[in-house]
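Dear all,

This email documents one entry for the complex benchmark we are building for the journal club exercise. For each entry we list the sequence lines for every component of the assembly. Then comes the predicted three-dimensional structure of the complex as a token string, followed by one or two observations. Please use this as the template for your own entries, and keep the labels exactly as they appear.
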Amino acid sequence: MSIFVNAETTVVIQGISPTSQGLYHGLRNRAYGTKVVAGTNPKRGGETIEGIPVFASVAEAVKATGATASFISVPPPAAPAAILEAAEAGVPFIVCITEGIPAHDEARVYNRLRREFPGTRLLGPNCPGIISAGQCNIGITSGDIALPGGPVGLVSRSGTVFYQAMYELTQKGIGQTTGVGIGGDPVPGTSFIDVLQAFEADPETKAILMIGEIGGSAEEEAAAFIKEHVSKPVVAYIAGVTAPPGRKMGHAGAIVSGSKGTAKAKMEALAAAGVLVAQNPTEAGEKMAEVVRHLG
Amino acid sequence: MDLFEYQGKQYFARFGIPTSPGAVADSVEEAVAKAEELGYPVVVKAQVKVGGRGKAGGVKLAANAEEARQHAQAILGMDIKGHVVHRLWIERASDIAKEYYASFTLDRSAKLHLCMVSAKGGVDIEEVAATDPGAIARRHVDPVDGFPLEAAREVVAAAGLDEAAREPAAALLVQLWDCYDQGDCDLAEINPLILTTDGRVHALDAKVSLDDNAAFRHPEWAEFAGTETEDPREKLAKEKGLQYVGLDGEVGIIANGAGLAMSTCDVVEQVGGKPANFLDIGGGANAAQMANALEVINADPKVRAIFINIFGGITRGEEVANGIVEALGRVEIASPIVVRLDGTNAEEGRRILAQVPPDRLESRPTMIEAARRAAELARQRA
């Protein structure tokens, strides 16, 4: 099994054109086996691009194809409206990889979804997407680094460390149920806790690998959740162990503020919740190998 | 982007938030001239993007030209927590009856904005939060609802502001919300917010941090950009659109994605190396960007070895490899390069890199091995 997406998931690519990022990655996702059933572009309704039927709006695409997920990679000024368009069209799962959306727009979209579309889950923005190994890949993850069959569920705030961690597992012959990149922006649509909850409920996920990074308090909140609600073993790595305090390190999210937010505070909170904490992605893979051995 | 106090006050003024009359001065002479124009007493304030100016002696009251001169002389060039003062803000002194605190920022845990108001202003608010949390009134703001005057009235009452200050403070708080919301601030903070002896409320300080992601809809921000004082390496990187933070070591680091770049610094340090920098070439980096990144690293004389760590997702391996080859052809890269390339189109990228002579570039199959090799090369070449 997997969480959020599976072999039955059907995807609409929002903002498709022959030169768009959406098409490039959508075709890679399709090559992986993802059911890409539609694209949208207000100027290209009725066209077919690379065998993908294009509709003028998400509502039309959903009506014609019954798409259950959408993939958004349009530029920041257009992304918030694209997310809301998908939600209004009734798409239950939206993946937005767009980097650079203003924080105020993210907060507005998040709260509109929460209030008006409680049945919609947004993953991202500024995330690598989601991959249920062997079944469905929505986003920009290179599918060949995932190994189907479980038993590990992977969740990460950082995109590239997500790939790194997945690859560490795959190289050790450890499969994944689903890998979820939640993104490092200030207001992510899906949080660590949402994913941990789903992994806890998924019978095929036997252990969880969590990748955090400095800044904010999402990892501390995840630690509190794990302590109370997660029975499965969790291994974690926090990127930025050696980062000097008080410096911005790229992501809007990665701002060290006060004692909460430092790698040390996060690692301590996680360790106190019974999580096995690694110093780097390779060690995280090694610790997970140990955990998987003991699963029997 | 953090603003200086004077820029923050200029930004406040766009939204009607009252501040004291004042002027910028870059020299002692200018400071005195501006003080004369404003009329005494004035406050001479160091313009640095760091807290604790007052305690460091960077804020002084001057009753006449002689004092204005003395203070300007003392404060210009002063080092406040590593920030050298190049500019002063000369402001008409206010008759302060009370000092309060007001701010808006994002509460990432609640995924809502947070308004904080306190009657205990003018001091370190983090100290107040730690020792007397009840003294800060907090109210979450859902961006869908906004922040109407009624909400502002409730929060100033909850904070226990003096009766005379409440109505003007509530009105100012709504303006501060507009500044924070429409002005795309990560933080809009006033400490102290003052009640004057003649019953007016205005901002005596301004701490404004702008969300760089919103720059595309704020052409007016261009005037703030040029005044940022930065590490010359950081300045060069910024011009080339790269996320760069200068550190003190010898291993130059280039990675894609902030997380992997931080993780690369972690691993280099753990294998006994010292990172010279954090550099994120970003998602979807192409050949030109990689070439730019190498040039930035190359400009740092402390660098002895370069570690390029790429895990392609949106970034494509062959683009990265072409960028490295292009940079090697374009400029003389002084240090040997160790590359680790995985992910999207990695094999194609590795094939391209195999053509580069091994004394200039070596590939390693894993992040740890590449980090070890880069640290080793840096030590050998120290």
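Observations: Chain B has three domains: 21-92, 96-225, 232-380. Chain B has 13 helices and 18 strands.
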